[in-house]
Write a structure and sequence with these properties.
heterodimer, A: alpha/beta, FAD/NAD(P)-binding domain, Flavocytochrome C3, Chain A, domain 1, Methane Monooxygenase Hydroxylase, Chain G, domain 1, 3 domains, five-stranded parallel β-sheet, five-stranded antiparallel β-sheet, 15 helices, 18 strands, B: alpha+beta, Alpha-Beta Plaits, disordered C terminus, binds flavin-adenine dinucleotide, binds iron/sulfur cluster
């Protein structure tokens, strides 16, 4: 692809820092950099303020004051669940950062006191929080490009990441090229377009672009977590389900969830027939507070004439992939360095093993990580030395050779294939080598059969093709990593290799590659 | 999925076009936006929150198109429960002492961390 062959207008942008993704982490990164005077451009696939998984939810942040012993206790508790994959120093850093920086949002966010007239600084309503972050970014001078998905990263002649290439889907449409001194990847996790609330844009685009340049991943086997939703809906906010009981069509009770995570029993019952949820145990005070704390949770019930506290209602399970899973880009340094010069990774796109271990960080740790990693990476990105002038490589040259790009027609078929492998709850919750190998072969075949996109594809289709490629690539790293970890650990359950009596030496499963996917082990030092 | 834009209520402000994270709407020659990529709708209900005249209705079924009855008017309950627009209550400004209060509260109610 050279510039002349592009059928679309090409816009040029320049900044000190490009932030890729305007969700929780990207916003904190952008405003932190802008506050210290840098020129920041933020590119968001959807709309910064409503996009990403935090916007329709209500992220609580890990919140521990610097009282004597309090943080040590909190970190020790988390480390004990991290099975040797955690890092106490990282945990302390994100607790401290969150404590220091989160209250800054108070200038843009209208807190409401709870019933006891207390302000709860760490529990925010998603739509208002993300809207506040947007206004905070704008007030600090961040230039926000909405509806501008990034399609690939750009490198300069020295091979350093020096910008992004993408498409403006609204307004002055066309392709764009944004040059910067450093790039922060904050495009979130990947849930394979399951019906997870707010996750439709989280297709692993950033993972894919980074892999094109050789980035490595860690913990991708920790991608097998499923959440309950009322049947056919997206409402995956989990709080009320901690009181749930589940029944099959014969009224037989199904084994309860394990720690808020959907159990294999539930998945198997669902594979066999409808499953009904009973919420009659939800306490009265929570029922009363629900519309204030989580105003959207009641919408699916109310609009379908269900009284969830009286009527049993049908449920589905939706896959969370790496979102409330754990895996992502393997970080190479203490400030979210990606291992590629000029490129940083923050929030859900980065592996969170250091702060979560092999279990989900949803509920408190993930949001604190998104905030803190964004702030840390922004500071580090600005202190990298500047090198101008540079020649920028257009995507055709920046990309390693890959045969994989899809015609729009095959998009749907590939997406369906990926979802069949990755979103089957009973198989993902009891993984076996035989299934995993078959999955990998199926996914590899999809990859090799894909045909190049037509040069005159519409901007919308260019975006879609990239999403499909990305989901397929993420699915292959997840599957190959799941094969590599032969014992059960945390959310990764191997039905053929049950938990070992003798603990193995803790190790990380790393993965990477596009045409050839690889995964391998690396000893964990904690 | 997004099912309805009630023309009588829509002022043509264009907000839904810009804030929809899935880029579902497009401007039309008339004032009322068009739903052009319904299958891309991620059923997040956020357009309802941003529409100041309660002109939009999102059906909770995300698996396919569910035609809404001719008589349906958007209930505006998401905006009401969220206290947006005309439902706005007096905002409270955070204080730093609130942070400490929150800590003790979280200790008593660990569940509330998981929203
Ligand atoms: C229902 C739910 C409830 C949750 N509740 C909690 C909680 O209570 N506590 C907690 O700690 N965590 C919680 N989490 C997790 C938490 O929301 C995430 O960890 C956090 O939002 C991650 O931030 P992020 O910025 O990395 O990703 P996101 O917030 O998902 O943002 C990623 C952004 O990148 C954009 N993007 C993607 N691809 C591109 C591209 N190619 N170009 C440009 N932009 C792109 C997306 O549109 C999106 O806006 C919850 C998650 C879910 C799903
Ligand atoms: S936000 Fe509401 S009033 Fe504005 S254009 Fe959309 S539907 Fe019409
Ligand atoms: S529900 Fe969400 S994705 Fe669907 S039209 Fe409204 S804002 Fe867009």
């Amino acid at each position: 692809m050279n510039q002349k062959a592009l059928p679309h207008a090409l816009h040029d942008h320049a900044a000190d820092l490009v932030v890729l993704g305007g969700g929780l982490s990207g916003c904190w990164a952008a405003l932190t950099a802008a506050r210290s005077g840098a020129k920041v451009s933020l590119f968001e696939k959807g709309y910064c303020g409503t996009s990403g998984v935090a916007a329709p939810a209500g992220p609580g942040h890990w919140w521990v004051p610097p009282l004597p012993g309090a943080r040590e206790d909190a970190v020790a508790a988390r480390l004990s669940k991290a099975k040797g994959l955690g890092d106490g120093q990282w945990m302390h850093r994100i607790i401290e950062r969150t404590w220091q920086n989160l209250p800054d949002i108070g200038r843009y966010y209208a807190y409401e006191p709870d019933d006891d007239n207390r302000i709860r600084l760490n529990a925010l309503r998603g739509p208002e929080y993300l809207n506040a972050l947007r206004r905070y970014c704008l007030a600090m001078g961040v230039t926000i490009f909405d509806h501008s998905p990034v399609l690939s990263l750009l490198r300069d002649s020295t091979g350093r990441v020096a910008g992004a290439f993408g498409a403006h889907l609204q307004g002055t449409q066309g392709l764009y090229r944004a040059r910067a001194n450093a790039v922060i990847l904050a495009s979130g996790g990947c849930a394979f377009q399951s019906r997870l609330l707010g996750a439709a844009n989280n297709t692993g685009d950033g993972h894919f672009m980074a892999a094109e340049l050789g980035a490595q991943f860690s913990g991708m086997e920790f991608s097998s977590i499923f959440s309950v939703v009322p049947k056919n809906t997206t409402m995956s906010r989990s709080m009320i389900y901690s009181f749930a009981r589940y029944f099959d069509t014969h009224g037989r009770e199904i084994a309860p969830d394990a720690q808020g995570q959907a159990s294999l029993g539930l998945a198997e019952a669902l594979a066999a027939g409808p499953v009904y949820c009973d919420l009659s145990r939800v306490p009265q005070d929570i029922r009363a507070q629900l519309p204030l704390i989580s105003p959207n949770v009641m919408l699916p019930f109310r609009r379908q004439g269900i009284d969830p506290f009286k009527d049993r209602f049908e449920i589905d399970l939706v896959g969370e992939g790496t979102i409330r899973g754990v895996g992502g880009i393997k970080l190479a340094g203490p400030n979210c360095e990606s291992g590629l010069e000029g490129l940083f990774a923050t929030g859900d796109i980065a592996s969170r093993e250091a702060v979560t271990g092999p279990i989900s960080g949803g509920g408190a740790v993930n949001a604190a990580w998104a905030l803190a990693s964004g702030c840390l990476a922004a500071e580090a990105a600005l202190s990298t030395d500047r090198r101008t002038p540079r020649r920028l490589d257009l995507p055709g040259r920046a990309k390693p050779k890959t045969s994989a790009a899809f015609s729009s027609e095959s998009h749907r078929a590939i997406r369906t294939g990926v979802q069949r492998e990755m979103l089957d709850a009973s198989r993902q919750l009891s993984r076996r080598a035989s299934h995993l190998k078959r999955s990998l072969t199926t996914l590899d075949t999809l990859w090799s059969q894909s045909a190049p996109s037509p040069a005159d594809a519409s901007l919308q289709n260019l975006k879609r093709d990239r999403e499909t490629q990305a989901m397929l690539a993420v699915a292959r790293w997840c599957t190959s990593s799941a094969l590599e970890r032969t014992e059960s650990l945390g959310m990764h359950r191997r039905a053929d290799e049950p938990e070992l009596k003798e603990p193995v030496k803790p190790y990380h499963v790393l993965s990477g590659g596009l045409n050839e996917v690889r995964s391998w082990r690396e000893e964990a030092f904690s | 999925m997004i099912e309805l834009i009630l023309a009588e209520r829509c002022t043509g402000c264009g907000t839904c076009i810009s804030i929809c994270p899935s880029n579902v709407f497009e401007p039309s020659s008339g004032a009322v936006p068009m739903i052009v990529r319904q299958e891309d709708c991620q059923t997040c209900f956020l357009c309802e929150l941003y529409c100041e005249t309660d002109a939009l209705y999102v059906h909770p079924d995300a698996t396919g198109h569910v035609p809404s009855p001719d008589t349906l008017t958007p209930p505006g309950d998401y905006r009401r429960d969220s206290g947006w627009g005309s439902w706005l209550k007096t905002p409270v400004t955070a204080t730093s002492t609130g942070a400490w209060a929150m800590y003790s509260h979280a200790q008593e109610n660990p569940l509330e961390e998981q929203l």
